[in-house]
């Protein structure tokens, strides 16, 4: 098979000419902020009030980039004659973003909704040691977490909500029956008159 001389060069120039005539898709990033999708994985925000120091996030992290320190504190009894309780108090919560691979396992396993994805992505540092962010910085990012999308009004009710509503209805019915019984015991002569 005989090849035409300079056919490869002609094909390459054709590709170049096609590319030159297309509109550029370059983003002017520092001047214009990009429109990020709602579920962007930027950094992890910490809602410290929900953290119970269960350590699940640190244990499940495949990179071991979450550092948690805590101490136990005794809480006095809520009622007289009750017993004292102990609870964990968070001393340090830090994430080393130089090790983090943004897999989201820590957010998924958190049973108390203390960790959330924030769309913030501008946290570059010149020194790698400064990529370990403590709980103060993680708390600041919590306020940049977007609100969850609204539920679909035609969606099926979650099983948990249905079970909770059923239990609440049973409890309300039992309390109403008990109250009716109590009122009947307190006013027996009114029932006889009716």
- Average of per-residue pLDDT values: 88
Overall geometry: elongated
Radius of gyration: 30 Å
> Helix count?
6
The termini sit apart by: 112 Å
Q: What proportion of the residues form beta strands (DSSP E)?
A: 15-25%
Which structural class do the helices and strands define?
Answer: alpha+beta
Structure report:
With 194 residues, the chain is α+β, with helices and mostly antiparallel strands. Helices cover 35% and strands 16% of the residues. The protein contains six helices and five strands. The protein has helices at 7-21, 56-60, 105-109, 135-142, 159-186, 188-193; strands spanning 43-46, 66-75, 85-96, 115-118, 132-133. The strands form two sheets. The chain has a three-stranded antiparallel beta sheet with strand order 2-3-5. It has a two-stranded antiparallel sheet with strand order 1-4. The longest helix has 28 residues, at 159-186.
Task: For the structure shown, list the relevant keywords.
single chain, alpha+beta, 6 helices, 35% helix
Layout of SSEs?
Elements: H1 7-21, E1 43-46, H2 56-60, E2 66-75, E3 85-96, H3 105-109, E4 115-118, E5 132-133, H4 135-142, H5 159-186, H6 188-193
Antiparallel strand pairs: 1-4, 2-3, 3-5
């Amino acid at each position: 098979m005989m090849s035409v001389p300079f056919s490869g060069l002609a094909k390459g120039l054709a590709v170049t000419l096609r590319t030159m005539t297309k509109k550029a898709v370059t983003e002017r990033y520092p001047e214009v902020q990009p429109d990020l999708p709602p579920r962007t994985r930027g950094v992890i925000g910490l809602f410290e009030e929900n953290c119970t120091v269960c350590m699940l996030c640190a244990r499940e992290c495949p990179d071991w980039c979450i550092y948690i320190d805590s101490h136990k504190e005794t809480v006095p009894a809520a009622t007289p004659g009750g017993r004292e309780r102990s609870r964990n108090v968070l001393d340090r919560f830090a994430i080393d973003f130089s090790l983090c691979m943004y897999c989201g396992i820590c957010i998924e396993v958190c049973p108390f909704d203390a960790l959330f994805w924030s769309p913030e992505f501008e946290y570059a540092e010149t020194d790698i040691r400064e990529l370990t962010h403590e709980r103060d910085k993680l708390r600041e990012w919590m306020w940049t977490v977007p609100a969850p999308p609204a539920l679909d009004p035609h969606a099926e009710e979650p099983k948990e909500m249905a079970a909770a509503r059923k239990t609440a209805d049973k409890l309300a019915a039992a309390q109403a029956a008990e109250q009716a019984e109590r009122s009947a015991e307190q006013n027996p002569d009114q029932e006889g008159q009716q």
